[in-house]
């Protein structure tokens, strides 16, 4: 049986050509390079190649910079997030290598979809911007050396935890699943958030999640999205079970799972360190504002609190927050836990759908968020991504688009993609020997059943 190698990162680097005016200062233009084991001469060679490619491509397309370079064995992605700053990610393509002929390999270029990995590169910048700030602000403040240190600290951890081989259309959306609540329950959540900010003036805004579903957010959608993604990664990387801790780390209660994911480890230590509380930059206003991001878990709730960096963090503040949130969320849990996303009960064994709203980044899905638990073949998911890219291109010319694809190799599968008014939905149906009219009718039924009132197909 032939060996298969998966997608992996060959290199990832950030550079600014204006930072080196002399040949002996060439290394100054490299702000970050991964992997760090690569010698500086090789780094400069790769950056120089990228500069040449970008300059050459500009000749043919002065208004739109180069985004992708394809070779037999690799795929290289380019992003210019800020003026003069370039981010480059090179992937080794997956390959099948016959054991009998070690030197020959079949490289699976179609397994790497440009739109997915360009979105992943854009997300890598957005996350760094939230934790490091804009690149240009550091350079303008003559803090290039500090910027390099910050980028190394952030990206070495980010890239080693990035599941580059598991990315699919969900990376293209990077959406958030909202918990559907009736008006009364929603008001309970909103009033609790308002009460938190009234009781603790240090807390300027908050985000409330329940089982990773968004319930309430007091900040801009795009920034809420990044924070929720960070919190999810924080939860995944935390192998500590609150019950096994006997709740002694952050709380005096012994009946409920309550803890700070970011904060002091011991409330009895008045000189406790707050280094685990990250500082983030929010850019929704004219000038970026720095906040402490304090994350608290209780029962199935996760509360993210934004505290202005000018405020002083104390153990006493965390004690009071722990008492307030633990009691309040315990009360809310009894009101919320009976509510399950209504669309989950609509799942049919032969039909699955995915919905995305660009306006509020909402995602609804009857698929799973990870391929490990997904019953849909990867080839089908790649077709869904291709349809999404095609429909978005079509919607630049008209208000709506619809695409239907039958997979010839997997004859039971049909994919229907609809897009209208920045809302997208995709249906995956299994129907052997079905006619196109039947597939169209079934997709409309699913649209009316699962997405009634939120997606109007034209």
TrEMBL record:
It comes from the Eukaryota. GO terms for biological process: vesicle-mediated transport. Residues 203-326 form the CCZ1/INTU second Longin domain. Residues 351-445 form the CCZ1/INTU/HPS4 third Longin domain. InterPro entries: Ccz1 (IPR013176), CCZ1/INTU/HSP4_longin_1 (IPR043987), CCZ1/INTU/HSP4_longin_3 (IPR043989), CCZ1/INTU_longin_2 (IPR043988). PANTHER family: VACUOLAR FUSION PROTEIN CCZ1 HOMOLOG-RELATED. Belongs to the CCZ1 family. This is Vacuolar fusion protein CCZ1 homolog. The lineage of its organism: Eukaryota, Metazoa, Ecdysozoa, Arthropoda, Hexapoda.
């Amino acid at each position: 049986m032939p060996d298969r190698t998966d997608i992996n990162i060959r290199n990832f680097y950030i550079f600014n050509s204006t930072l080196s005016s002399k040949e002996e200062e060439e290394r100054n233009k490299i702000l970050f390079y991964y992997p760090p084991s690569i010698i500086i001469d090789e780094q400069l060679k790769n950056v120089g190649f990228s500069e040449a490619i970008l300059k050459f491509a500009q000749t043919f397309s002065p208004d739109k910079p180069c985004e992708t370079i394809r070779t037999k064995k690799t795929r290289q992605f380019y992003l210019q997030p800020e003026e003069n700053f370039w981010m480059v990610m090179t992937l080794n393509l997956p390959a099948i290598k016959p054991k009998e002929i070690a030197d020959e390999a079949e490289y699976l270029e179609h397994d790497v979809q440009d739109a997915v990995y360009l979105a992943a590169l854009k997300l890598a910048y957005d996350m760094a911007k939230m934790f490091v700030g804009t690149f240009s602000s550091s350079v303008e403040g003559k803090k290039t050396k500090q910027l390099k240190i910050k980028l190394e600290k952030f990206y070495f951890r980010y890239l080693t935890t990035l599941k580059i081989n598991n990315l699919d259309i969900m990376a293209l959306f990077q959406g958030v699943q909202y918990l559907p609540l009736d008006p009364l329950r929603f008001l309970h959540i909103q009033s609790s958030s308002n009460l938190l900010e009234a009781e603790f003036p240090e807390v300027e805004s908050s985000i409330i999640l329940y089982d990773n579903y968004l319930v309430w957010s007091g900040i801009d959608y795009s920034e809420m999205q990044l924070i929720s993604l960070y919190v999810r990664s924080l939860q995944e990387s935390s192998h500590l079970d609150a019950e096994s801790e006997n709740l002694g780390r952050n709380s005096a209660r012994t009946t409920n799972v309550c803890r700070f994911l970011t904060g002091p480890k011991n409330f009895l230590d008045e000189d406790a360190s707050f280094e685990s509380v990250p500082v983030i930059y929010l850019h929704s206003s004219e000038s970026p504002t720095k906040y402490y991001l304090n994350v608290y878990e209780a029962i199935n709730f996760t509360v993210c609190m934004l505290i202005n960096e000018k405020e002083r963090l104390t153990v006493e503040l965390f004690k009071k927050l722990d008492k307030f949130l633990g009691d309040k969320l315990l009360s809310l849990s009894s009101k919320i836990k009976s509510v399950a996303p209504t669309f989950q009960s609509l799942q049919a064994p032969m039909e699955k759908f995915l919905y995305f709203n660009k306006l509020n980044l909402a995602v609804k899905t009857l698929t799973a968020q990870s391929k490990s638990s997904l019953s849909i073949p990867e080839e089908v998911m790649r077709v869904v991504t291709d349809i999404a890219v095609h429909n978005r291109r079509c919607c630049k010319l008209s208000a709506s688009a619809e695409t239907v694809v039958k997979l010839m190799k997997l004859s039971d599968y049909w994919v229907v993609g609809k897009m209208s008014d920045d809302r997208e939905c995709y249906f995956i149906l299994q129907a052997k020997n079905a006619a196109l009219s039947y597939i169209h009718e079934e997709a409309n039924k699913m649209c009316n059943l699962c997405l009634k009132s939120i997606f109007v197909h034209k």
